[in-house]
């Protein structure tokens, strides 16, 4: 696991210390509240070595002791608590990150709107909802939206008596280099490279990092959500587009071309509709526009995606058929991901993830159709869509970097 990102030397860090000090802080962030005994086992440290490091971190105001009825966070999946010296009945002391000692702002950029949220060091949202729309997608106007959202978050933090944010994370659908330069952003229709980090830093005065949005969701879930402690964890998003990313030990797999939407054209149904690239039955059939198109041809008149959803909720036969079919295709896609990439859990997110809840039996059928009968069931979790979650995820990446 790499904690030191030398790409970005001007990004602030919570503390400067040894590699192990950073590892301990990272483990407390993920697994806290966590006892010293469990922490030492997870990191393979002696109790003595761990105690020295945790003292330093407590002294630096990064972590704190919590006592009383301590409930563990999730622990690594292969973790087996050894018989410890902790006697039954003795009050447990555990370690947690100092949640409100630091705050961060996260912003998710969409085609014509941006959503912002302030979070604490636990990745918990501590601000109200902030949204700004922009008709003009130029980098200048988008930067103005970023400044406005950051200003709103700062006011919320001050009103709540929380500290000023230490960093800003921005998530964008597309390709970002060195956590700074957006080289491809289809929804923003930018030509050429945009140094969004520099623009945002000038406009907000906050140290900024810019990330791919799906990777941000993945990292957020791996540090503060359903992916904590999993060796391998995948996220699949459906909505306007199809997105996919894979994490190993909480870190997104580094693959230079992955933010070009490669997962969108994987074959999932040999009898599915044809995509713009001419493929029959590729994963593009899971996008809102493809579903709307397919529904329109089924009912013989132009219908929107929202009309399809309303008709499916009202159990209209053609809509019900297409919902089941779509969920079966989604299940097929999950099985392909599970069979090849072998994640422990697949998280389904995105604007249209709710379809997986409406047709969960069909999702399961699709998975089982392409899974060996003796293979373990594929675990998947469906996340209710909220753009604020994507903004929080951008902030979570800034937290991880700040802890590094
Ligand atoms: Zn295709």
Automatic annotation (TrEMBL):
Gene3D superfamilies the record matches: 3.30.420.40, Winged helix-like DNA-binding domain superfamily/Winged helix DNA-binding domain
InterPro entries according to UniProt: ATPase_NBD (IPR043129), ROK (IPR000600), WH-like_DNA-bd_sf (IPR036388), WH_DNA-bd_sf (IPR036390)
Secretion signal, residue range per the UniProt entry: none
Pfam families cross-referenced by the UniProt entry: ROK
Residue runs in coiled coils: none
Family (UniProt): Belongs to the ROK (NagC/XylR) family.
Protein name: ROK family transcriptional regulator
Taxonomic source organism: Bifidobacterium choloepi
